[in-house]
Amino acid sequence: xxxxxxxxxxxxxxxxxxxxxxxxxxxxxxxxxxxxxxxxxxxxxxxxxxxxxxxxxxxxxxxxxxxxxxxxxxxxxxxxxxxxxxxxxxxxxxxxxxxxxxxxxxxxxxxxxxxxxxxxxxxxxxxxxxxxxxxxxxxxxxxxxxxxxxxxxxxxxxxxxxxxxxxxxxxxxxxxxxxxxxxxxxxxxxxxxxxxxxxxxxxxxxxxxxxxxxxxxxxxxxxxxxxxxxxxxxxxxxxxxxxxxxxxxxxxxxxxxxxxxxxxxxxxxxxxxxxxxxxxxxxxxxxxxxxxxxxxxxxxxxxxxxxxxxxxxxxxxxxxxxxxxxxxxxxxxxxxxxxxxxxxxxxxxxxxxxxxxxxxxxxxxxxxxxxxxxxxxxxxxxxxxxxxxxxxxxxxxxxxxxxxxxxxxxxxxxxxxxxxxxxxxxxxxxxxxxxxxxxxxxxxxxxxxxxxxxxxxxxxxxxxxxxxxxxxxxxxxxxxxxxxxxxxxxxxxxxxxxxxxxxxxxxxxxxxxxxxxxxxxxxxxxxxxxxxxxxxxxxxxxxxxxxxxxxxxxxxxxxxxxxxxxxxxxxxxxxxxxxxxxxxxxxxxxxxxxxxxxxxxxxxxxxxxxxxxxxxxxxxxxxxxxxxxxxxxxxxxxxxxxxxxxxxxxxxxxxxxxxxxxxxxxxxxxxxxxxxxxxxxxxxxxxxxxxxxxxxxxxxxxxxxxxxxxxxxxxxxxxxxxxxxxxxxxxxxxxxxxxxxxxxxxxxxxxxxxxxxxxxxxxxxxxxxxxxxxxxxxxxxxxxxxxxxxxxxxxxxxxxxxxxxxxxx
Length: 809
What we know:
Helices cover 47% and strands 18% of the residues. The chain contains 27 helices and 25 strands. The two termini are 48 Å apart. It is of the alpha/beta class.
């Protein structure tokens, strides 16, 4: 049974995976060959049918794409509101059954758009944001039940004017496949609302139960928020309460998520197996107590308790939003309780295999999910302890369970390291304390109080107690996350280290020797910390060798970020955009790229000017990275600077300098100079801080967003300066290659061999402009664009030779 089941799962998951057409064709040929051999015929036929069915399902699920001609147009959309979330950035709606009207293109750009009479269906879900400062985009609720508030929108049709775009990826070495995620989520487009036209009638009857449940969930969350705010609870406590009880993780800020990741406690705030299983166990215990007076047979009582507990767990999962972790938890719970519900005598491994099998059949994409493997690793380890315990004394089992929790925390370290590349050093110890606290006290108390608030008014001390408890817990987590060693990057370690450690840990669990997994998993971490301390206090004294220099223009869409690295020295020029939704390129691109190469601090950070596509991620970066020198734009901007939380040791502004070593107090030598155009009366884009780098005899110019006026001035400055020339091998294109920049005068002086343009794919500005790229060709310059070629690396060797390496050739 196990072999055939695993064989079926293998081809089922391969069919749903992004396996590729060529690889899939090779696999089909191999399976067809297996049909010719009598011994393998049955299994080959099973594998072939399973693979083809899964591949057809995956294709049907992901083929929908948002039409590119619709991007940048004011679309009129009529759709059903299936979900909404609200946070500090505004309101988000998830729309389904969308019908789209495309405007007729008018000759006069300022004319009001005219829409076609024929609507076109848009297959898939659409996510739109509503920003608080756009008055005409705010929801119209007059026709709805006022008692429901915003929750009344769920299940109603709306007519909106929106701007939409399809999913896209940033092409860097550390690339998250957002397109694939959107396809598997069924989300075909995202955007924002420009105008709210009409709030219509209710949606179709077919989707009514699901929408009614989502409406109830949102109503509970709004009621919980209102109730807690009137009791003067802090925003942090309200957000944590909402995440733990109704799965409202959207209320958590990006900073809170970073704290949870650094302390290894994310699983406590995401509705998953811990929460769903806890609800089931509590309800089962309650049922056992209720049926005791009726002298019901013990086996029947267990079966009744199992059915009621599973029903309660499903209800809780549905109220939490029924996300993928909650779905997995329900399936796993049903598999583990299958024998109890039907009175079957199944071993623990049989129950776990049933749950594993059903999960992958219903959720084949879970095979590539870190949460899936973490869940089953945890259940497997805890199950071995609980089900194989020889002692029946409750206190002995509690001690064993606590010991298992300690071993389990360390056992999950290899799985987390393999999946994320990071390890939380404080996570194992924190979880030993917090998992029992959340399981036994906090979550049950919050659930009971949340239910009680629906029926009655509770005294103030309940909410004061919750607020104090959650605030103290959060302060403790923030303090732990503040340690530089709380989370370390370990992806540089060989794969074999983590795989072998995981195998040894599992074997030690099976043979029930707790000290071995603890020692085996703790020793590498202690060894790692000792090496770090030794290298810090006893630096190498051998003769210094100049390392090569790598200049990387990261793909940050319509923005700019240039990373210069020489050995262990690092400079970053600009930090990309931060959007109104809270999404920023520091978290999405810049930090993953740097941390993947073991960079956890910057020697120099330069912000060219205050435009958001260049400086938007500054605050997010300073909250997470140590910066030795921060160079702000020449022009001050009080509104941006007063809220700036700086972790930089030295802060200054861009000023014109002579040639000097970029790395202060370092044996590595990389000459640079700054040119502050604001000193000559320019402002805005033209006041961008221009950087010249001299790399082993080669020159690179990073020109920010300067345009024709500033370029003319730059040429004049260079002609009057005896020690400065603009002739360069590499030019970071001014202003993303716009038609108001890269003038003939500048290119004649620079004569670059390569021009690197940072621009978003299919951006609405038309960057880089065709006229400008033609100019690059005429001047003999080869140009690359991040929107087409992704991340672009220029590697300079110490002998002056260099190579330009695009991510996409």
